[in-house]
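Exercise 7 asks you to align residues with C-alpha cells for two separate proteins.
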Amino acid sequence: MHASDTPENEFQHEQDAEELDIAAERLALAERVQTLEEELLRNRAEMENQRKRSLRDLEQARRFGLERVLADLVQVADNLERGLEAAEQPGATMESIKEGKALTLTQLNKVLKSQGVEEVDPMGKAFDPELHQAMATEVSTEFPPGTVVRVFQKGYRLHERLLRPAMVVVSKAQSD
C-alpha cells in the first residue's frame, strides 16, 4: 500500500477534485455572466437606436405628412386666383364667375374627400346633438318636431370624428 493511498489522502484528492470542479464551474458561470452582460448592453444600445429612429421617423411624418394634401390645396388656391383674375376681365359674366367657383368648390371637395373628410348636411333629418348645433327653433307644419328645417352651416367629420358640427334650425310644435 502506498502512503498516498491512505483514506485521508484519498479524501484530500476528492476534495481537491471537487474544488477544481467548483472553480471550473465558477469560471464558466463568470464567462456566461460576462456574455449576458455584453448581450444586454448590445440590446440596450439597439433599443436606444430604434427609439431614436422612431422619433426621427415620427418627426419626418409630422413635418411632411401633409405634403400631398397641401400640394392639392395649392392647386385649389391657384384656381381661386385664376377665378379672381377672370372676374376682372372685360366681358366676364356672372354666369362664368359662378361656373368657375363651382368648379373650384368641386376640386376642393375632392381634396377633402380624398383625406376622409365628409360633409354633415342634416337638412330634413332628425336633430342629433352629437353632429348638430341648434342655433334656433321655429314652428313648422312641414316637418315633425325635432327635425332640421334649415342649415346655416354644414358640419364636417374626419373618419367618423366630428371636425365641426352643422349649425341648424330645428322644428318645434306650435304652442297653443
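Second protein for Exercise 7:
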Amino acid sequence: MTGNFETRLAELGITLPEASPPLANYVPYVQTGNMLYVSGQVSANADGLIIGKLGDTLNVEDGAAAARACGISLLTQVKAACLGDLDQLVRVVKLVGFVNSTPDFQDQPAVINGCSDFMVEALGDAGVHSRSAVSAASLPFGVAVEIEGIFELR
C-alpha cells in the first residue's frame, strides 16, 4: 500500500530507487530513539555521479539539480531505515549541505535550495527544516554536492 508521502512523490513523477550501499567504511544511517541520522548522500542520478565544481564547470542551476538528487537519495535512505514505510517520517529536522566550489563562489545557499525546495515540495510542512550550506574545496569522487540529514520518525 502506498502512503501519503509516496503518493506525493508519484504525483511529482519520482520513484525512489533502491538505497545505495555506503561508498566507504560507514553505515548509511543510524537511528537513536526517534531520530534518524542519514550519512552524506553524494550527487548522483540514474546516469551516475554528478561531478564538477560550482563557479567553474557548473552553474547554480546545475548545482541545485545535483542537490535535488541528494534529496532523493536522502529520502531513499529514510525509506530503507523505515523498512519501506516512508510515512514513518514525521519531519526533516536539519540538512547540512556541502558544495564543491571555487574560492570565490558565494551561492552555496542557492545550490542547497535544490534539496530544501524538493523536501518541501515532496513532504509539505514535514519537509521544512533547519539547514547549513557550506563550501568545500573538493568532495569525494569529485561530486558537486553532498548533503546529510537528520530526520524525526514516529
